[in-house]
């Protein structure tokens, strides 16, 4: 931020950046915990975030005890926030965030600076692109990320092609396979580089199997063809190290390629504020109150780590909101209090929080496994003592499912979370 | 532009021009802008739907100081003359640029000897202030660069090739030149009067002079006028682009020692003004002049070679891959690897000026080539300087580069400055509207991207595309006519439900 500032910053108790399932819930959580001036900044024209383009069913089972569509979930959450006295500013994009919790915001009503006693990061995520995974070939029209295609199809009523190949079996890709089929685009197949699907099993079943759409595992797109518009893609099987196997290539004619190859927590603002990030989650390192390495800045939802179900992002938002309100009111646990670290061990891709204050009365632990496993024990074990502090048996764990468990108060040593048969 | 297009279609009598430039790359646009100083009726015909769509968009954007080209050649003359012209020109046109200096790094004694040869060549050409520096000095200038010695050229720099090209055309347009897009020349009639009739999908145009600046296709355009002595070979160069996070890793372009007797400069690393870093280009003859594909082996090799020069680049994600095609007069099969620029009035066709084989250092040389063309015309007829020639183009404000106070002032004056269309590059609706309503009416996503940077960021258009669709529709482009880069690169098949 430059030294010349247009206006003295407007003050708020809690400012939430992003009005999706996590951000809206965070604002509600902050209000319920007593924060008086709670503002949600949403860059889209209406709150709801990515929920607005998720016209399919399957939201709300945990938060509202019934399954509703994404837009309905967004509407309910927005109404709840309204009733809770949350203020909204839509069409407002935060362009900068400083560690002193000053925000630069641009909107049609002007460019301004805000100051908050606590900030909640709820910016969500963006999609990995063709360029990030480096698919060779030409650069024709017709290559879309699955989420962009979902926006174009569901919100703008646009037909993106006559026949599509989907690379990656992330949930949005699976949902779009079904959606495109409904709308008359022929889906030639879903290709997944890993030996297992990246999306939820219910989506594999309901979006592919029920419609006879082939899912090819251990396969990837190795070339895009077509000068002006996609004319085909070349797919190949991959070996155990995910390299294409020569001789297995075949060309699949199509005029659109959709990519559902991963989501990246959108932490550009967090970096601006100097927040420490985890290379494993792509999100902030947080403690059990979801506070980041910068005091008074909290993180929740997909900007913290990628969720499989929107409801979990909302629950995380409620928790972050409560903690932020307490911090804003000066009731936060001392930030100088001693913390122990939590690190992922065998077959655990990541675990969260990464640090826990001693003396907390139990906390929620989120984790994902690296590879699918059956009849497995998840253990939280002391790094120094080797002593198991917590243990839970799971009939089945898959990387596509985020797990949340409540863990007993921490012992006074760093701990490792691992998963064994 | 739309008015121009309408006139061209209306079937009225062919319009008469003094000079027609064929090709809207950096060279053609520089010629157009240089000639717009004079009382000439000027026309530029571009085959694609936007300027800078050919070799120019594959240029790495380095301003060369003239030590890579053999002494006594037109390349050397135009490079050295262009170096003096290009910085003030960029300034006048409000095109962002920076004199960064440039390093050519050597790792062993053999390479060190090549540095000395390059330096001697540069001195003969007239490159100013070259020096051979040691490892400590390399590290002082560029802590992340490797190499035992380097040739340091302090007057080299960086500029955006397409921003320069567009600015040149806009400046010429402002001075009365006409630019017609989607107007590839399909036939040339040589008139008894000695003039030329150029046939295009946008109508026929008569001109007394023709400047063939058609880049990769300049041999084909020459043939249309009965000049069959040239062949242009497409020479592909692939690039990778890092995330802007890499901005802190490098400020100076870093080159390896180039091969002898070859115009290939080696896979180099070029910082851009926006903070992304380019790796490349590679070099490979391809049969097809429009085969701008990226290939797995080259993508891998670019990284390997670039990481050898600047190992810190390993830390950063890549957000884009692309390739460009250079127009080369030497072919793949034997023979000399070096050919000079062709800048000549055809002996066969008076008043037909050929600009062929303008590969590196064509961008730096462009203003000098433009001056040479003006002199060639001026040698045959009096050129009358226009008293009202305006050498400047009003700068295009970019929200992302403005200070808080200026942002606040703009957003208060017009709410379009408050609406963000591109999240990665912080582009506002006001900037997109300015691009859509500019004299050449950007209509494709790539044309908007080159003017605003929408879609150039790390999400590669995921966020802005739906917003740009809305904006284009508001400007009267039906959804099934929205293209990536004009022509048949149609993005959508229309509405799902009416």
Rounded to the nearest angstrom, the radius of gyration of chain B is 23 Å
| Individual helix count of chain A | 8
What is the overall shape of chain B? globular
**Into how many domains do the coordinates of chain B divide?**
3
CATH class of the largest domain in chain B: Alpha Beta
- General form of chain A: globular
Ends distance of chain A: 52 Å
**Hey, roughly how much beta strand do the residues of chain B contain?**
15-25%
CATH fold topology of the largest domain in chain A = FAD/NAD(P)-binding domain
How many DSSP H or I helices of chain B?
A: 13
Q: What is the CATH topology classification name of the largest domain in chain B? A: FAD/NAD(P)-binding domain
Radius of gyration of chain A: 22 Å
Percentage of β-strand residues of chain A:
25-35%
| Low-confidence parts of chain A | 1-6
CATH architecture call of the largest domain in chain B: 3-Layer(bba) Sandwich
Biggest sheet character of chain B: 8 strands, mixed
Oligomeric description of these chains: heterodimer
Structural class of chain A, by secondary structure, is alpha/beta
Provide mean pLDDT of chain A, rounded.
94
Structural summary, described in words:
The complex is a heterodimer of chains A (421) and B (498). Chain A is an alpha/beta fold. Chain A has three domains: 1-127 and 263-336, FAD/NAD(P)-binding domain (3-Layer(bba) Sandwich), CATH 3.50.50.60; 129-261, FAD/NAD(P)-binding domain (3-Layer(bba) Sandwich), CATH 3.50.50; 338-421, Immunoglobulin-like, CATH 2.60.40. Chain A has eight helices and 27 strands. In chain A, strands 1, 2, 5, 6, 7, 8 and 19 form a seven-stranded mixed sheet that branches. In chain A, helix 5 (171-182) links the parallel strand 11 and strand 12. In chain B, strands 1, 2, 9, 10, 11, 12, 19 and 20 form an eight-stranded mixed sheet that branches. In chain B, strands 13, 15, 16, 17 and 18 form a five-stranded antiparallel sheet that branches. A four-stranded mixed sheet of chain B has the order 6-7-5-14. Chain B has 498 residues and is α+β, with helices and mostly antiparallel strands. Chain B folds into three domains: 2-55 and 162-232 and 339-378, FAD/NAD(P)-binding domain (3-Layer(bba) Sandwich), CATH 3.50.50.60; 98-158 and 235-325, D-Amino Acid Oxidase, Chain A, domain 2 (2-Layer Sandwich); 399-481, no CATH class. The chains are: A alpha/beta (421), B alpha+beta (498). At the A-B interface, strand 7, strand 8, helix 3 and helix 4 of A face strand 18, helix 10 and helix 13 of B.
